[in-house]
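User: Could you check the structure of this?
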Amino acid sequence: MIAFTIPGQPVAKGRPKFARRGAHVVAYTPAKTASYENLVKLAATTAMSGKLPSTKPVALSLVLNLQVPASWSNKRRAAAIAGTICATKKPDADNVLKGIKDGCNGIVWGDDAQVVRMTIEKRYSETPSAIVEVVEVLGEAA
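Assistant: Sure, the predicted structure tokens are below.
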């Protein structure tokens, strides 16, 4: 099992952007997405501490600790942190998952197609972060 925490507010993977460069159109990853994926790579590399990426099927557990909006009252903030107010606002959990899976490619696993089971939880926290746990699953890859 490997576990690590990505500090800071979780970031949803943005759609590729397109720009005209002379007669050509080029696609690029938005800066915010690229920056977050680099943060994921750094946290994953540190957690792997020199181990090779898994070649087996894996299960991924993800807890997204989102920052409580600054505009909320202290009472509402306390309820959110206690879990009585669910984190139903952006970012979408599946888009954050995409960025984290892409950031772990070649570090935690060879390719994100190896992820055969996923659980995601979004919640409010005083300390925004993403907690990642990866466990190899019994069974062989196809």
